[in-house]
Structures are given as C-alpha cells and as structure tokens.
Predict the 3D structure of the following.
Amino acid sequence: MQVSFTLDEIAAIAKPRKTAGATTESIRGIASLESAVPGDISFLGNPRYRSSVASTRASVVLLPPDYAGKPGPDQVHMTVDNPSIALARLCSRIEQSLWPRPKPGIHASAMVAADTSVAASATVGPLCIVESGAAVGERAHLQAQVFVGRGARVGEDSWLMPGAIVSAECALGSRVRLHPGVVIGSDGFGYEFVSGRHEKVPQVGGVLIGDDVEIGANSTVDRARFGQTVVGEGTKIDNLVQVGHNVVIGKHCLICALTGISGSTTLCDYVVLGGQAGLAGHLTLGKGAKVGAQSGISKDIPPGVSVRGTPSLPYMVAQRIFVLRNRLPELFRRVEMLEKHLGVESEKKPGN
Amino acid sequence: MQVSFTLDEIAAIAKPRKTAGATTESIRGIASLESAVPGDISFLGNPRYRSSVASTRASVVLLPPDYAGKPGPDQVHMTVDNPSIALARLCSRIEQSLWPRPKPGIHASAMVAADTSVAASATVGPLCIVESGAAVGERAHLQAQVFVGRGARVGEDSWLMPGAIVSAECALGSRVRLHPGVVIGSDGFGYEFVSGRHEKVPQVGGVLIGDDVEIGANSTVDRARFGQTVVGEGTKIDNLVQVGHNVVIGKHCLICALTGISGSTTLCDYVVLGGQAGLAGHLTLGKGAKVGAQSGISKDIPPGVSVRGTPSLPYMVAQRIFVLRNRLPELFRRVEMLEKHLGVESEKKPGN
Amino acid sequence: MQVSFTLDEIAAIAKPRKTAGATTESIRGIASLESAVPGDISFLGNPRYRSSVASTRASVVLLPPDYAGKPGPDQVHMTVDNPSIALARLCSRIEQSLWPRPKPGIHASAMVAADTSVAASATVGPLCIVESGAAVGERAHLQAQVFVGRGARVGEDSWLMPGAIVSAECALGSRVRLHPGVVIGSDGFGYEFVSGRHEKVPQVGGVLIGDDVEIGANSTVDRARFGQTVVGEGTKIDNLVQVGHNVVIGKHCLICALTGISGSTTLCDYVVLGGQAGLAGHLTLGKGAKVGAQSGISKDIPPGVSVRGTPSLPYMVAQRIFVLRNRLPELFRRVEMLEKHLGVESEKKPGN
C-alpha cells in the first residue's frame, strides 16, 4: 500500500520527547530494523534487537527513552515513551488509508429485501444479499458478495468482508469483524443412528456473536441444536477454526488457527487455545485456562490451568514427560544392563 | 427464531400417553431442563438429568413413561414413549418455519446458461451461476451465490447453501446438503518433481456424491486424477474437512471436523473418523472401523477395529500406553533406585 | 467428463515405439489397470502392478519397454518410453477440454471499477468484482464470483476459481492458480493485551504470491503486519492451509492440507510439510527440510533435516521412540520383575 509521511506528520502522531538527526527522505514504508531501507520508518520494540539499531538503514527510528546511541547520517532518532504503541498509532493512520470508510448506501447490484432494517449510515456493497427481516446497524459495512440471511442481525460498526455468510436468525453485536469466507450459522453436526442410517437431528437454534469479536478467514460457527451458540464479547478467533453447536465461548478469549471445539463445550472468559487444538464436547474450561498447540482435551480444565499434549497434561508435567519420552532408548538400555547384571532373563521381543 | 406452539399443537405432534398439570403460557422456546424459563418446552432425554426435572422452570416437560414426579405450578408434564424423538418432531416443525420451502423458479439475478436442464420445481436463488450443460433436479434448491460448473449435476431435493461451489463435471445425488462455502471438485494435490520444479499432474476426474450426503461448511472434496472421488450414500461430513483425490468413502460414514483424508484412501461403510484425524494415502479402513480424534493413520485398519493415537494403536492398547506414558517419571525413579541398590553406574544424562 | 480418443489420436500423443493387438472400441475413459472396463485406456506406471496387466479389461494399455506380455483379445498394447508421462500428456489434452480457454472479455455482470488495468486478453467472469486501482494481467482468468480488492494485482495467465478472494494491495505473480474459496490478504492474528482486552494491532502489510504458485481450496494467507507475507515461486499449497502474517515461504515448497504456519516463520526453498503439521512462529526451516504429518514444530530445523512428532524429533529418532513407546507395558513388567527379584519395594501407584 501507499505510505507517505512527512517528519512533521510522524512527530504529530508519535509525539516524541526528543528528536535527533535529520533526513532528506520522505517516509514511504515500515520495516523491521534489519530489513529497513532508506525511506522506511522502524522501531525498537523488543530490547533484544537493540544491537540492530546502530546498523539499520531506516530513515526514522522510534526509540525508547533508555536508548543512548546517536543517529547515523541521513537518519532521525525519535525518542518516545513506547515505540510499539507509537508505531501502532502510525499503522492505524495507514489502516485508514488502506481501508477508507466506505460511502453509506446500498450498491445497485446488492439484493436487499423490502422488509429489512438497514441503517442509513450502513454500507451494503456490490453483490451482497440481505434477506427478509434482517437488520443492519449504523455504519455497518457489508463489503462485497456478503450473505445476511432471513432475520439475521448485524450490529453497528460491524464489518463483513467479501464472501462472509451470516445464516438466518443469527446475530452479530457491535464492531464485529468477519474476515472473508467466514460462515456463521451452519448446521451443527448432529445425527441419531436409526436402522442403519444417520438421521439428522434438526438444528433450529441460533448463533450470538458478542461485541468486538473478530473471526478469521474461512472459520465456521455452527448454529445451536436449540438455544444459542455463543461467542463472547472481545473474543478473537483466527482462521479456519471450527466452533460446534451449542458451544459457549466467554469474553476476551483467543483461539488460534485450525482449532476445533466440539459441541456444547464451554470456555469461560480469557481462555487461550493454541493452534490446531482439539476439544471434545460437553467440557468446561475455566477462566484463564490455556491449551497448548495441537493439544487434545477430553476433560474439564480448572481455572487458570495450562495444559498440553494429547491426551493433555498440566503444562509442566507434559514438559517433563516429553523429556523422558525422548530418553526411552537410554531407559531401555539401563534396564537391560540391570537384567544382565542380575542374570535375569528379559522378555524382549525379537528384533529389538 | 420465532417458536410458537399451543398445548394442543404440541400434543398433536408429541402424542403424549398422558398429560398432567396446566399452564397459562404459550410455548415460545426450547431449552434444556436447567436453562429453561417460563414459556419454554424442555425434555428428559438422558436419565442423568432426572433430578433436574423437579426444579426446571420450563412450562412444558416431555417425560418418559417411567418418570413418576408431579408437575410444578403453571407447568405441564407430558408422558411420551421417547422424549428425544418427540422433541425432534417438534424441532422438525420449527425447522420448516426456519427454512420454508422456497418458491420454485430462477431468480432474475441468477446466471443460468441456455443449455442447462433445470427442473421446473427447482429453485435457483439470487446471484447463483449454473454453467453450460449442468443439470439441476426436481425441487433442488440453490440458495444464493452458489456456483454449479459446466456439466455438473445436482440431484433432486438437494440443497446448496450460500457460496457452495460444485465444479465442472461433478455430480451430487438426491437429498444432498452442502453447507455454505463447501467446495466440490477442486484439483487433487498431485505433482511430479522434474528438474527442480513441481510439475502439475492434470486432475481430470470427477467427484460423485451419493444420496443423502451432508457436507459441512467450508469442507473441500478434490476431483480425481482420473476416475472419480466418491462419497457414499448417507455419509455425513462435518465442517473444514479435506477429502483428497480418488478417495472412496463408503456409505453411512461419519467424519468429524478438521479431518484430512489423503489421496486414494478407501473408507468402507460405517467408518467413523474423530475430529482432526489424519489419514495417509492409499489405505483401506474396513467396515465399521473407528478412528479417535487427532489420530494419525498410516496403515490399513481391519473391519470393526477402533484405533487411537499418532501413530495409531488399537484403542485399548493406546489407552494403556497413555497411562504408562504418564508414569514415566515414576519408572525412571524406580530404575534409578534399582541401580543404586546394585551399585550399578547409570548412563543418566547430565541435568536430569 | 467426456473423453473420446481414436487409436490414431492416442498414438499421435503417446508416440509409441511399437503397438500390438487391435480393438474395435473407441476410448472413452481412463482407469487403473484393475478398475478399467472396455473402452478405457490404462497404463503400467508402477512396477508393482505388473501382474495386473494380464487381467486388465482396458482396451488400450500403455506399457514400458521392458514389459513382455501379449495383448488380450480386443486389446491394444502400446510400448512407450514412460507410461506415466505418456498418460499425463493424454490427461493434459483432456484437461484442455475440461477447462477450455475462456473467451477474453469482461462479463456483463462483473463489476470492474473504471480506474483498473484489465488486459484485453484477460477474462473477467460473471459476478466478479475488480476494485479501484487493481490490475489483471494478460490472459488472466477470473472465473466467477471472484473478488480482487483495491490496488491488488493478478499476474498474466493466472487463474482465480469461483469464490477466490484477493484482498486490497495483495499481488499475485504469473501463472498462479487459486482454487475456489482461497482467501489472500485476510488480517494477521495480532493483538496486544491492554486493560483486560485484546486490542487489535493494525495489519497494514500485504501478500506477495510468486509465479507458478498453486493454492488449494479454502486455504488462507494473511497479510503482513507491515512488509509482506511471501509465498515463493513454484510453491504448491494444498486445501485448508493457514499461512500466518509475515510468513516467508521459499521456492518450490510443498505444503499439505490442514497445515498451519504461525506468524513470521520462514521456510527456505524446497521445504515439505506433511498434512496437519503445525509450526510455531518466528522459526526458520532450512532448505529441503521435511516435516512429517501432524508434527508440531517449535524449533528451527537445519537444512535437509527430516523431523516428525510433537514435539518433533529427527525422523529416525522419532521412529525409534515410537517403537519403544509401544513397548512400555513390557518395560514396566521388566522393572517389576527386577524389583521382585531384589525384594525392592516398588512405588507403583494403586490400581496399576
């Protein structure tokens, strides 16, 4: 994307305590200290990269108060309270130019049923569909090729990106972001085995997505069998995550990519799930529980407990077991030596 | 969604043997015994919730013949042969109002090529595409933004939800349900390594989806290299599942979310795959084989056998190994004690 | 699909050294030796199927020079230098009829902004969207319902299948294939925890997809926090793969289905990742490194090294550990026997 900042603009956003050096470059990019070239702004956000500041080719470097070095030729050092936050503010400015607020209104190619409630300040982009009885709140943005089904609700300032799908009767809160390809309200996976066939259990519940939830590309959230599947306020879900029917996710959870949560499981607030984690159904994960990547969870987890592995164990125990697992060749040899020492006959299997 | 039942309507559907109590509420929701509020109907489907019946606030409770308690004030007990089935019948009624049968016909915004065969009773919704030579059967429903490629076939009473994609020359049987974002007929993942590059192996086969198959949101089924990738009658596939090229899945299988099946593997009838299972290519899983969640399968599985783990083991063996794995710290200590007892020098690594 | 070859056409493509036998069938299908029926062409690509040649019902069989048998009645044997390559050439011919080159031009239903650069030889299919400032190269094919965002670039001869999404400012090289439902340029998963909430870190970088890259159905590639997420030339990615922000993938890598690569990890050239592999963030996998299916990687991998397991180990070590893990019941018995022999009291837990 096009980045273009003058030094004055950067200073107005980053509010430096002090500035040293000078540059003739205008700022056209952002980069890490190592990969920056002239025309870039960079920052020291993590002390371990401190030694990279002296050699960076960035034209502007945001530095913490305790950094003592001098800028190179054609380079500006700006000392700020928190370089990461200063950079994030610059990025927010860029984000606004990357994603300018769209003009309100309904695109001529969008299909909006007559009996919907679409706020005048909302944007319904090209080739979007809003079915009968649906509601779209103030300043909500249906970007393009979005589907909002019968009776569904999209809260104010929410942003549904291309190809996002909100099925009938599902509800999104305010400031929700659905990335491209997200599916809200597909049927839960429920069948009864009758006479040699899997008969479908009707899935007639809904989905409730709380305020400030963000859901990554191509993730899926199933509607409840009855009642509601719930994703709590402020929870962030990565790409390609599966949330089963009647799952209840608390507030401010983090769920990494390719994780699967089986039906009727409950996550309390502030739960963190690593990538590719798998949770069985009907479990409860207590407040602040943490699940390591690729772990398989088949039991409740108490509040604040971190687990890892399949089947999972408390984090420190799992670490210990992993180490000992790797020492199995040694342990077999030690036992064999004891057997030899005692003249005890081993039951070793042939070939080992 | 809007639920509204009178007691008479419920009785007509649930066919109670006997009814006790009375309520002034009309029924506006369905809920579990614990979460029900006045106006809800609930049910005792699982004996372990028996104790919750006395305290439930549901206005109507469906109960099995062996339940002996009395209804509370403003509450009705209906005794039925099977509360779960009675509830499912009520839910089917709700399902019909949630998903009313669409009017037949082709939406003005749909793009249907001239040389297609679309049944007069079929519905082709807004912004759908049906390419040249494709066929859409009686009462089939292409909901919205669906793509049906050249020469593809959609069987009668099938339902393709928003954003579902059926690529050229692929065929769906009758009563197939594709949830939003499903992709049928993407290319198989096949390359030959030639002169330092991966040269594409053409994927010119198709996909055959049998009758009564249901495929969950954003799942993908690759077309065959040649011949057909097959999903057998009555098989149910959850969300975000990958089915590789030339895979043959039998009848009435269940495949849970985030599972991957590599190319040319065969599942016989009634196979069950847990969530996030992974199958290597060119394997055969016998009739009724069961694979635990997150298991990795690299060998054939005989009929009726259950396996678990990566690499997988027979279920009971895997359970035993998991238990012993967790006892490794104990085993190391026991061996160390034996070594001390005998004065044998251990080869323990430093730091352990 | 419709296959129709005369013997002369096959000979023109396969260029046999010699031909034996005769058939009255025209060739209407391709099949393996075992599943072929009259009217099919088949081939001996792998020596282990040599014994199937004598019994195959295929009307034409492509055979290597060292095969000595005679054709059956109504059957032709064609001896070619390399049966696999000869078959691939036939399949390429079929592929052209399965996917005929579309006519250049912009479909009447496509939405192409005025200030785009779409080559006259490119095809923009029905219901596609090309936003302001985007560029679509010579002979590129946006098949249907494709989204190309503001300022994005699609290189020449690239093919974007139905429902593929290329977000703003992302760039595809030449001959890139995106299968249905692919999302390029969703936001990276980045938050800072501030006052009990996850505050979004703006993701203002882009995605660069190199020449000859192919990405499978419903896979997702996140845009960089700043800078670029990169997929190198010739790399092939399977279905349902997640590529995190600022990941850099080298040239000619293979990434199998359902794999997840966390942010800022680097894959050098020729890396191979098995299905459902999971990589932590900020790692480097050296040139030619190989990761087994379902493995979990949390450390750098040197060039050329193969690893397996979670946490992963060098391939041969992992194989050894897997074998010993399965012998844990034996080891526990052996230690118990030693304890009994010595009269040492065990610390066995009750019930084991």
Remarks:
- Chain C has a mean pLDDT of 94.
- DSSP finds four helices and 38 strands in chain C.
- Chain C has three domains: 7-98, 105-316, 323-352.
- Residues 105-316 of chain C form a domain with the UDP N-Acetylglucosamine Acyltransferase; domain 1 fold (CATH 2.160.10.10).
